[in-house]
Design goal:
The protein is an all-alpha fold. The protein has one domain. Helix content is 74%, strand content 0%. Helix 1 runs antiparallel to helix 2. The chain starts with a helix and ends with a helix. Keywords: Membrane, Transmembrane, Transmembrane helix.
Length: 47
């Protein structure tokens, strides 16, 4: 969830506080949120 918020904030990169640096950081954080869920789903499908 935090990663998605960072990516949305990156869209407003023209503002002084927010920046385009938030987009890759948000993608990295979102991947760490999605990775455990992805492994859980793939393990469930194998059974």
């Amino acid at each position: 969830m935090f990663g998605v918020l960072l990516m949305i904030g990156g869209v407003f990169g023209f503002l002084p506080v927010l920046g385009f640096w938030m987009i890759p950081l948000g993608a990295a954080v979102a991947w760490f949120d999605v990775k455990p869920i992805w492994h859980w789903v793939t393990r469930r499908n194998r059974e």
